[in-house]
Amino acid sequence: DKLAVLQTLASTVNRDPTAAHYMFQDDPFLMPRNAGNSRLFSLSKESGRNAAKYIIKQFPQYFDKIFAEPNIPCLMPEALTPQIEGVSEEALKERINLRRVKDSVDLFDQLVQAGTPVSLETTNSLLDLLCFYGDGESTPEKQEGQKEDLEEPGRYLLLSSLTFSLFVDYRENNNAERIFKIMPERNAHSYCTMIRGMVKHGASAKAYDMYMDLLNERHKADVHTFNALITAVPYLKERFLERWELAKVFLNHMVQQGVQPNLLTFNALLKTLRRCGGVGRSMSLLVMKEMEALDIEPSLATYDHLLFIFYRGVDLCPPGIILEVLDDVEKRSFTPQDPDDANFFATAMQACCDLKDIKLAYRLNKAMEKGDNWKFLDMDRLNAYWSKFFSLLCMMEQIDVVLKWYKEMSLSVFYPTPKNILDLLQALDAANHLEVIPSVWEDMKQLGFSRRQDLLEELLSLMSREQHPEEIQLAFAKCADDIKAVHEQTGREQAPLEWTGSVLCHVTLLFSRVGRTQDAWNMMERFQQINRIPTEQVMDEFLNCAKQTNCSDEAIKLVKLAASLGLPSSQRLKSRTEKEFELSEKQKKTLESIKSDSDSSDSDSDSDSD
Amino acid sequence: MVLRRVKKDGFEYIATLQRVKKVGFEDIACRKEESGKVCGSLKEFPEDSVDKHHFYLLEPLVWEQWLDVCPFCTTALRRVKKGGFEDVATSTRRRGRAPQFIRSHVPPRTERMAVDQDWSSVYPTAAAFKPASVPLPIRMGYPVKRGVPPPKEGNLELIKIPNFLHLTPPAIKKHCAALKDFCTEWPSALDSDEKCEQHFPIEIETVDYVSAGTSIRNPKARVVTLRVKLSNLNLDDHAKKKLIKLVGERYCKDTDVLNITTDRCPLRRQNYDYGIHLLTVLYHESWKTEMWESEKTEEDMEEYIWENSCSQKNAVETLLRIKASENVSNVTKEELLASEVVKNYRNSVIALKNEGETENTMSQYKESVKKLLNIQALP
Where is the composition biased (Acidic residues) (chain A) (predicted)? Predict the structure, then answer.
């Protein structure tokens, strides 16, 4: 094995807990900062690669010089121009091999018009080509003409288990149907290809009709056709029981025609059962038993469908099913056998979160790290998986375990979502570990969440709830400073964030508690700008702060403000100021004058109420 | 702190909160971020304080590189463009090179690295030096005037040179432990150097080259070096001398090692075969004696041989004459040659010629001549 030495050396290396994924440049300005960024960067890398491949394919004449010594054939452009000219069956075969859909159709038409008989095999392979690629070309740039027909954006959703819409791009009177109709003789293969193509492109009813034709002609369908038909069942019938009955019909036909089901058959069956509601729940276990009886190893897609059937409903089932599933998944390392395999881990983690079971989540995580199983999670799914896992951890685990996972995994394997940050803050609150909050704020800034109102409110309310020892208070005040800067920035890119009343209250409190009287007073002045009133607590704290720093001017200004706003507590504040501060004569006079204002306003209101 | 050049002869450092006068080139301001005040004037700092040191070092660094933060006291630096008044303490305008979209400062990931992290995971393979990933405060390069070498951020010198951050001793230990499974046991019979030499006297040295590029070939890889000790070859005296004459410079007298380096063929295997062929030919040729070798003259000799040399002739003649003048009966040449004094003389002459003139050999010669000619030491 040529790679054995490299693989052994690679086994000595572990994961680096501070680095981003290895595909990104390892530079602080070029690393992705949050989930959106990482998705964007990885997609742009991939699109760059695709663009390069496209250029090489389109202009192979510029890439004929061989630089590498020795030559690497797979990097050189392939010669994809058809060699055989003229109208003949060999030419048609060649174009089919090169996947040139339009050319092959044209050539076929020419052959038919010229009267040359085209053999059944070639026609079948032409049908295969057409059904696989739909009616369009295999290369995307020639599809511009066809895209105009599909105007609704919803139709671009791909067939996936997350959304239920099928990519419907089946057009009437397309080439495949036409060729099928003019074929002098058809065998089972022709029918099967047509059925599979129709199901792939969304014409389920037509596929069913074609199947009926096949039965009438006494042909036998193959296992792939049956798989396609079973996949199309949810689009043929509406009610759950009817769907199941139809699927059973197909299965019986399989038995009659002696077709052996394979893994994909059962996966298709379970996928149909996903959309059968309660019927699904009762029948899926029977399906699993059949699989065991036929000695077919379930793949991850099987388990994904199972978990979805049982754990995505409104009422939660007991964890028996998921325990059995985990037992099996833990034991082995899976290879991809079905496109839906990739969704397993996300669904399983969602189920663990719904059941609120942390031990299951740990087992699932271990299973994911075993062998090749981690390869099933790409960037998107990885982030979703880890963010669910982290939410569960925050809910259920001790704070030091949570912080350990956070330090190791966040910003390198996954990027916390706003919900994750909220969960983390709540966990810190529950464990009374509020001194970690400034570092969480740093991470928030890096992730780009520093403008989210909900996170800011949560953060500030936690910081300002109680009095804390000195250094922590200073750190909190620094965070408050940053938050103030966010609200005030003379942005070239973004408008400054609007102040809200509670945010302003909290910031003022934090400034007051560390004795930054001037800053706190600046904050107080903003209350009027946004038409809000500071709470009692804020004003009391401010007075305390002013007392500590001996700023009696500020105290008087506060009383003036309170009086002008007509607050009921202004009297109390005034008396406090008089008692606790050492006022000069001038200040005492000013204080007196304020009193008269408030009195007059009171008398006015009295007269109004009369 | 505002630095201002007043006259051409020297710098004068002034700190004011007021306007900066237009002087003719750029001024620099160092503003403390927390309080919004500027650093004090130079006069305020005591003679040997660190901050005064900062001022002297600050200016050239800011001239040479655009620094955001004073690297010594971590206060923010700002360049104030020449011309025009600018109120240093309160102005927030950034003139000159302020970019349109400023990315907020991202802390490098060295700050989040644990002290006991696994370094071989950070640098598993040979990679360029990444200043944000290596938590070492390295400086490299020619120092700026009256300053220090530039720091590691954006330092091309550090990136150009090859580094061995991926081969720290713990990493090598891990690699060796992992590769042990691929290795066979060292044969237990070969447990010392002498035994290795005895069983495998010829050493072959070849070099493999790996580089990142379009081609895996390297012309230097064809060179093959053969090394063998002549004591391991079966040579008699004549053969050894002839071999040494044939190879010339390739033989090292001190270590008795013959080095043959071949690179005349394009492939390594061919060069190896050629080297072995050369060794075989030399060996066989040195054992043969050609006819013309008998014409070897005294200049071709490698070492001095006393027999049949003029020294022998002279010594014998002199002794014969002495004996004749003393009227002793005819003694034969052989008796003379076999006598003690002549033998002594012979040894000392040989030593003198072969080993060169040292204290030892000279004194030995003196003694032997005295004995030969029966001379007493001078009083």
Answer: 599-610
The CB density around residue A311, as the number of other CB atoms within 10 Å, is 19
Task: Measure the CA angle with vertex B50, ends B49 and B54; round to 5°.
Answer: 125
What are residue B224's DSSP bridge partners? B206, B262
CA distance A174 to A157: 22
Backbone angles phi, psi at B37, to 5 degrees: -95, 165
Contact B175 A12 (CB under 8 A): yes
For residue B289, pLDDT beyond 60? yes
Instruction: Closest CB to A9: pick one of B102, B109, B175.
Output: B175
Query: Cα Rg for chain A, rounded, in angstroms?
Result: 35
pTM across the whole model = 0.71
Q: In chain B, which residues have their Cβ closer than 8 Å to the Cβ of A9? A: 175, 178-179
Q: Is pLDDT at B22 greater than 80 in this prediction? A: no
Q: What are phi and psi of B294, to 5 degrees?
A: -70, -15
Q: What was the pLDDT predicted at A158?
A: 36
User: Residues A167-173: what's their mean pLDDT?
Assistant: 69
B259's enclosing H/E stretch is strand B257-262
Quick: pLDDT tens for A550-583: 777 778 788 788 877 777 777 787 787 777 777 7
The span from the CA of B166 to the CA of B186, in Å, is 28
The residue type at A226: F
Q: Mind telling me how many Å the CA of A16 is from chain B's nearest CA?
A: 5
- The arrangement of strands across the sheet holding B27-31 comes to B10-14, B2-7, B27-31, B76-80
C-alpha distances in angstroms, B90 versus A51, A571, B31? 51, 38, 10
Give B78's strand partners.
Answer: B29
Nearest-CB residue to B109 (from A19, A67, A407) = A19
Task: Output the average pLDDT for chain B.
Answer: 76
Residue B93 CA to residue A13 CA, distance in Å, equals: 49
- The token duo for A142 is 């020639």
Quick one: pLDDT at residue B90?
Answer: 36
| Shortest Cα–Cα distance, A115 to chain B (Å) | 54
Q: How far apart are CA B228 and CA B197, in angstroms?
A: 9
DSSP state of B86: -
Can you point out the beta strands (E) in A171-249?
none
Q: How far apart are CA A97 and CA A138, in angstroms?
A: 12
Rg (chain B; Cα; Å): 41
Query: What's the CA gap between B11 and A365, in Å, rounded?
Result: 65
A81 reaches B (C-beta below 8 A): no
Q: What is the DSSP string of A481-492?
A: HHHHHHHH---S
Burial class (CB in 10 A: 0-12, 13-18, 19+), B174: middle
What is the Cα–Cα distance from B379 to A216, expressed in whole angstroms? 144
Which ranges in A138-203 belong to alpha helices (H)?
144-147, 175-182, 188-200
ipTM: 0.71
Smallest CA–CA separation between A486 and chain B, in Å? Answer: 12
Whether B122 contacts B129, CB under 8 Å: no
Tell me: the pLDDT tens digits for B86-102? 333 333 444 444 445 55
Each domain of chain A, given as residue ranges in start order, spans 20-75, 434-489+497-513, 533-594
CB A507 within 8 A of CB A480: yes
- Contact call for residues A32 and A382 (beta carbons, < 8 A): no
Alpha-helical regions (H) of A81-203: 89-97, 101-114, 120-133, 144-147, 175-182, 188-200
What does the pLDDT look like over A364-381, one tens digit per residue? 988 888 878 888 888 888
CA dihedral for A478, A483, A488, A494, sign (positive or negative):
positive
* Cα-based angle A438, A441, A445 (whole degrees, multiple of 5): 145
Q: Do B215 and A68 touch (CB under 8 A)?
A: yes
- How many Å apart are CA A27 and CA B154, to the nearest integer? 11
Which residues on neighbouring strands pair with residue A162, listed in sequence order? none
Residue B64 has pLDDT above 70, yes or no: no
